[in-house]
Amino acid sequence: MDKNMQDELKKEAAKVAADKVQAGSVLGVGTGSTVKFFIDWLGERKEKEGLTLKHIVTTSSRSKKQLESYGFKVDELADVDEVDLTVDGADRVDSQLNGIKGGGAALTLEKNVAVNSKKNIWIVDESKVVDHLSGFKLPVEVLPVSCMQVKKRLEKEGLNPEFRMDGNKKLTTHYGNYILDLNISPIPVPNGLADYLDHTVGVVEHGLFLGICDEVIVAKSNGTIQEIKR
Ligand code: 5RP
């Protein structure tokens, strides 16, 4: 799919989600190019109908800056009891609404906001929808202090880790950690891999988001929108 077409679809999915946001609610806002459109639509609602929210939390400084540019005040997750709805993008989503996230390296905060939300909606174009999680390297955030040992361990497991780079340096996340992208496709047993990574010392978080998403809004190239609910 060409990038212009993909952007159009991202924009459409983002609009459907923005229209679902209830005034006065606590909103979580994710990260990425699809979410960027979502924030633009929120900005439009603020301008046209004076949309206000009780609290907004977000998962990256990029999204925070954009929200603030529309006059929204952004709070820290720690200052909010519970989030009513979080809207985020995804890199892949399967038929069970499990997903791979972290293409933008914001997975740790994304998962923290998501699991503290009553409802999670993902907005995607149709190229992200797959039968089984595949076609995208799985991001794993690791502590710098043990990154080489974790990499070796993951290599031994046949998970083909490679550091995500930023030029000729290892990319650092918001929390000062590194990302190892695992080159495995398809992921044969997502739950098993998630469990293994959850128990690997030095792994801060991983991009398998299993049983978290409640609804996916998919924009399709035939002009339709599909809303898939858990
Ligand atoms: C960032 C993410 C994003 O939601 C994911 O990468 C999708 O991004 P985009 O909307 O740009 O395709 O998980 O960590």
From TrEMBL:
Gene from which this protein is expressed: rpiA
One example of a Gene Ontology biological process annotation: D-ribose metabolic process
Known role: Catalyzes the reversible conversion of ribose-5-phosphate to ribulose 5-phosphate.
Protein family according to the UniProt entry: Belongs to the ribose 5-phosphate isomerase family.
Protein name in UniProt: Ribose-5-phosphate isomerase A
Pfam families: Rib_5-P_isom_A
Single GO cellular component term: cytosol
SUPFAM superfamilies the record matches: D-ribose-5-phosphate isomerase (RpiA), lid domain (SSF75445), NagB/RpiA/CoA transferase-like (SSF100950)
GO MF term list: ribose-5-phosphate isomerase activity
Keywords: Isomerase
